Amino acid sequence: MGARSVKQPGDATVRTEMEPLADVGAPAEAVVIPTAVVENVVVDLAVELGRMSLRIRDIKALRQGEVISLQRPVGDPLDIRINGRIVAKGEVVATEGRQYGIRITEIVMPDAEPGGA
Terminal CA-to-CA distance of the chain, rounded, Å? Predict the structure, then answer.
């Protein structure tokens, strides 16, 4: 067994004995999941125009017609998120039927997102 010191509240030191990790052998083989299994999984897609932080008192003071200035310059691409993770950038377009759409202008690589969230 290996010994390990653990700090406790109040700066007291406690000495603890721990069992060594058991040898579990070779790693298990990767499970292959057919594409057809995951194609029908539903995910949340959101397009983020911008963010800002407000104090509760400022939110309570908001009135109809007021403009909230976001921390994103006009013309910057919008973030396209799947389950909260940025996967692409895009721009707003008008679609047939007078609805908003988003044109994908850039695919974001998984390791390119700041913070790796």
Answer: 37
Domain boundaries, the chain: 28-116
Contact 46, 81 (CB under 8 A): yes
Q: In the structure encoding, which two tokens stand for residue 48, read together?
A: 């983020």
Q: Which two tokens stand for residue 67?
A: 């403009």
The β-bridge partners of 5 are 15
Give the span between the Cα atoms of 56 and 65, in whole angstroms: 19
Distance of alpha carbon 30 from the chain centroid = 26
CB 62 within 8 A of CB 69: no
Class of domain 28-116 (CATH, top level): mainly beta
pTM, two decimal places: 0.59
CA 79 – CA 50 distance, rounded (Å): 8
pLDDT per residue as tens digits for the range 12-46 = 556 677 777 777 676 778 888 888 888 989 999 99
| DSSP state for residue 86 in the 8-state scheme | E
